[in-house]
User: Fold these one by one.
Assistant:
Number 1:
Amino acid sequence: MSVQELGVSIAPQCAEPPEAHRVFRRDEFWRAIPGYAEVDAETFNSHTFQMRNSVTSVAKLMAVLKNHVDSSFFKDLTDGLSRASMSMRLSPYLVSLVDWDNRYDDPIRKQFLPLGSSILPDHPELHFDSLHEQADAAVPGLTHRYPDRALFLTLDTCPVYCRFCTRSYAVGLDTEEVEKVHLAVNRERWDRAFEYIRVTPQLEDIVISGGDTYNLRPEQLTYIGESLLEIDHVRRMRFASKGPAVMPQKLLTDDAWTDALVSVVNQGRAMNKEVVLHAHFNHPNEITGVTLDAMNSLHRRGVTIRNQAVLQRGVNDNSEVMKLLVKRLSYMNIQSYYVFFHDLVAGVEDLRTTLQSGLDIEKCLRGVTAGYNTPTFVVDTLGGGGKRDAHSYEAYDEENGIAVFFSPTVRPGELFYYFDPVDTLSAEARMRWADEATRKKMMRNAMEEAKR
């Protein structure tokens, strides 16, 4: 009996995606921005232009956009930045990809520029460093949570600053809201991390992050890579970077940096060790012909690339958008590895989604492309429980927006939460969250349900 005969309809959001994933824009889109109208393609597509012309303030953005955007938007942005946990930094490439005629709904603008009019109250259970990366740090900047792998935070700067950054406690400049825990480039600190890794033989996998490894100088990238390769029990390492999504030009014009990355990859391969690049694309609009050229260049030189995205409300919490992203990444030989549910981060409650919305999107992704190019949707649980498959919750009180997960490998016997955004709940549920005693009771009830 067919689905139609059973009277079951297929939701529109699960329709097959178009062939748009093969189309990469190669127009001179930046010329629509008044401040870049006279910039030729060779200049715009150099990493030096992108770095030197980063937009780091409202005044600089106004100078670039000129009369293209009205003053009310800049007032809204100024208000948003005054309450943000991240400072402002955008590449000209990103500025040019924003649809400024649709600026309030544009998915790129939403990720990088906070508006006061969109900010929602933080979740009542938000805590600084909600993932406990500092609490699990064996030495400064090295988080050892999982038995065989560690996170190495090499520096605290990035080529751009995402307003949703889970490391807003450390990354970027201090803001009016947050005084950062700084993890600047420091050879002595790095050497302490290498020594810990050297005397901890169960560590086989190191994530090299920050900040962003894009901001390491070539000789620093080489030093870190070769130091880790020299440790016999380290078998795998991943350089993590938002750079390919926000400044792909660097991979095509900064030969010294790209050569350093490829050299470490090749040395690892010769030693039967795996060295890969982890990128961070969240939306298809971040990808252009320059991106394709950069990814093809790395692919030809033998660099494996995986992607980790973050599920964000109004950005990519839509199955059609996510399918197009996954297909476009696949076309560029980038494996979609994870889609993270948005962490509890100050000032970005408007970007978080419910657990159920992500589960629904994941169902629609299955079968769209090969399994190895299909991401797993994961929750990085509050309090240091680590990553859990979103489907693996022990209890989910959807009415009150409380999910509970076990983490038997990382924290045996303990339970960890994920919370839906309060504004997505019913009026009655929002009232319950507003009362601290009732809130604690709901959380205890969810824990008890998970233990049954």
Number 2:
Amino acid sequence: MTFREWQQLSPEHAAAEVYARLEKNLPPAQRRAVIAWLCPQDELARRFAAAPRAAPLGGVPFFAKDLFDFAGTPTFAGSTFLPEVRPVHSDGAFARALHPTGAVFAGKTHLHEFAYGITGENPHYGDCEHPRFPGRTTGGSSSGSAAAVAAGIVPLALGTDTGGSVRVPAAWCGLFGFRLTPRDALIADAVALAPTFDTAGWFTATAADLLTATATILGPFQSAPGRPLRGASLELPGLDSEVAAAFRLAAPRLAPPAAAEVATALRQGFAPALEAYHTIVAREAWEFHRGWADRYRERYDPVVWQRLNRVHALTPAQLASAQSALAGVRATWAAFFRDFDFLVLPATPTPAPTKAECTLELRSRVLALTAPASLGGLPVLTVPLSSGLTTGLQIVIRESRSPVVPWALGQTESPGRAGISHP
């Protein structure tokens, strides 16, 4: 159901529909893996009744990734203990920003613990699986939010994206996704992973709904320049053959392949991004957790603990190198945007993987595609490819309200869903 279809329901019917869809579309184990907190049905109906229907998102239900604070609900961030060290007493910035839009807060979604992963695995609540392909992951860390939209429970869900946590699950679940920029107001008071890269974002099932949500939350898009928008596409290494074929078919519909000299400059400029990303995230994540990490060590996901603990092996030379690489990647992007309005990149190297395929090697392959935009601190629109098992395109832009967004969504309402074959 689209935003408009939800808005046509009565408050009681809308609340009942959320519950019915959750019951019908997710098996019990997946309900536990996806939903961190669900508004009681009577209260949800009251929220629908109170929503200003004349507002752009009036009567549109949404879930929020459990990194964002909403008054009256705890924020666990995929852990079992966070409220013990970080109690929540009031709405956070994103919750406050959504009040005047009329959107109806229906609940919170689970995630890869503390947002420190891209596979949607969580030993405390269960791994989030692709709603249409059980046994395959949604991707993470915004796993529950992506699953809720892909399963049709709600048409809008909030996520975050540090190293791809909107882009990857959007691509693997066949959704449209949008990530903003680090340190903006909507992410400033959410549970942090790495503030240099953390961004807010959201998912929808259709291009039209993503356009509505983005324009409502951010305000009007900038006017188009007095010339055609200029873009380029760039295939990066490490793609499965079927993903590469889908990218080569779909990307030129938005922008031609980058000229040889532009492609070379981008690939060389992006080369240090992956290692720098790991180093900076490890340092900043530890800063957030250091006040309680040792005391709660046994309650962390062992994989997440290992990533947090990596900070102790970092040398001053590695930290300095990462900062130098960060500056270099940003200079590469600045040079690109002097001549272009957007860059089209692959979003994932594979379709949604099975649990056995969620390896460190796959993690590196994914982050090699997503880290350049993360280091650039840039907004990214993600659009899906294929109507079965999916990957997606990253459309990297200079500013969140760029005219590229409505233009690209108009081009990709039915992206052809360039064919990745089904296994």
Number 3:
Amino acid sequence: MRKAEHEGGRIYIIGAGFAGRATAREIKEKAVFGTVVAFLDDDAVKIGGKIEDIPVLGPIRDVVNLLRRTPADEAIIAIPSATKDFLRELYFLLKRAGFVNIRIVPGIAQIVEGDAHLIQARDIESQDLLGRSPVAIGLKESLSYLRGKRVLITGAGGSIGSELARQLLSAGVARLYLFGHGENSIYQIDRELRLLREEGVGEKTLIVPLIGDLKDAEYMRFVLGRLKADAIFHAAAYKHVPMMEENPVAAVHNNVIGTRNLVEAALASGVRRFVLVSTDKAVDPVSVYGASKLLAERLVVEASSRAAPGRDFMVVRFGNVLGSRGSIVPLFNSQIEKGGPVTVTHPEVSRYFMTIPEACSLVLKTGGVGKTAQTYLLDMGEPVRIRELAEQMIRFHGYEPGRDIKIEYIGLRHGERIEERLYSPEEVLVPTEYPRINRLERRAKAPQPLAQTLTELEPFCIPAKGREKDYRNRRSLRTALKKSVPTLIVPENEPEY
């Protein structure tokens, strides 16, 4: 929370439910943040009364334009269960009423029952208004299997890994290991979690930041042997499609060899639950990134056959998430802030989207209810046209698409396709009893044994006697990779290095 900016300001809280009341109490206790002058709510029972000496005004649509306010006043939306449609309406209502400072408390997918904190409030962003409304997961119950356990997150500084860490902070885990090779990103999430814990979010979890590299097999075996982790959520990956098309050896080394190192270390150290975070780009992949994630899926499923009874290795696959690093939402935001144009690859290109908090909640729940050797697919809803997403984001910033901000089509890049699929014709979708979690049954065998694939790929990443010419040879790597992933596209002009 930015103390100086809101010191002494007037605050309107939208929503007089448990989240709104909790937020108001914290603001009152920490008076430097300003004063709550009113709740705005649509509940006829509450309207006209007071909650903790704060008047409740409403209905929201009727009173928001009647408020006497200054440019420094702030609105905090404290309705965790609000639908995306209602949030969009509310946001534009507040903007038209002159509110510049609009913040939001976490959505229902991030809140442990009855537990909302002021420190979790943040500036509302375009992705909060996009996509569908998340399902209420019930984190307290779904994370009970991790209570008192030691949990390791790889890629903990990334978009998915950091949100898994935030939600796990409320799970009552004994130790939370934040693993990554980026010093700055691990520092940021470590610092954020410690601040959240100081402000009452979660329990007295011991937070342990770890800097390391999945590609270092000896280190992975050593560190997992020391940590004695009960569960691993493997979110680390190089995942930017065009970037990995330019760096295919790095993609395979990190995403395939690195995953193998982690899996082998997990098997050796007695990890009881291993969950791989995967992607729809692993479905009949045409890109090196997609191919590397498909092999990572196979590695985890294969490991389950070597794990002792009671130890579960599983895969959770989903599509794009709104707002992740390197995704189109931050790119569109920066392009809009510069006045455009907003660049879209193709007028018909579409993707499946869900919010990061919802995806992470479902991953964590799947980790508890999933069975070993299984691949699970999160229900992504209907695909979204990127052109329409761009138009919505332009309007979020207060502009009109085409008139104020232009949309420019730049063509598909290497490794991209018009639309993604969530599962292949060789997979059968089987619903589970859990909302938005499906299971996939694979009907066809891989074209090449996994052990043979790894033997062929490793010398491209790690120097090997007798295959010195293969080291870092990207053209030969693609040819070898295609034997195991026949759908992979090998460009005719692919250079050797």
Number 4:
Amino acid sequence: MQQNPNLTDEQKDVLFNKATEAPFSGKLLHNDKTGVYICANCSQTLFASDAKFDSGSGWPSFYQPKETDAVSLVDDSSHGMQRTEVVCKNCGAHLGHLFDDAHDQPTGQRFCINSASLDFNE
């Protein structure tokens, strides 16, 4: 996987070492502008602002990707949990995890994504 040379240390840690940023610390958590969220590593469009919602979890949350083939879902049994990892389909970078607990959203899904893995285009 090729790395964007402009990434911060935190972004590299999240994208390539599957780290998680601290809850409520991400630069895009409270972003309410209209646009698209893109992979910080390869700039692939991942999520649209109209699918973003406040889950109260401390990370940007989306109920669906912009395009169904924008992300890949991978079984993740790390840290003693069974979860679904969300990765950028284009470059394979770690974005966050998918949970089926957004019962008040159209898909019932919560793509819980690290701000550090994203950039935003208005």
